[in-house]
Amino acid sequence: MSVLEWYLCVAAALTVLGCVRLLLARDPLVRLICLNVAGSGALLSLVVLAARSDPPDPVPHALVLTGIVITVAFTGVGLVLLRRTEEAPADPGEAPPDPWGPAGEEGGR
Fold this sequence. Notes:
By secondary structure, the protein is mainly alpha-helical. Helix content is about 70%, strand content about 0%. Helix 1 (about 5-25) packs antiparallel against helix 2 (about 30-50) and helix 2 runs antiparallel to helix 3 (about 60-85). It is elongated, with a radius of gyration of 21 Å.
């Protein structure tokens, strides 16, 4: 087994394990982490496929760099959304908590 085949097996295992855990998890934070693991496996497979040729193909490497940036961005947005859903009131008629505190207190608006 060559080094590229080994990395391709690791990439496939990461992708499969991330997808399976994503289907079995209930916690939204765990699901977000599973999406990151599955995405890392997909990005690793792109790097392996780019390294097959003698001079490595720069296009898949550029796609991987773009994918890393997108992964960081969607992880940040996902964490913000998770935090907002945790802070959301259970009663729809109730006002959400003010993140800046009451207006009359020092340090408020």
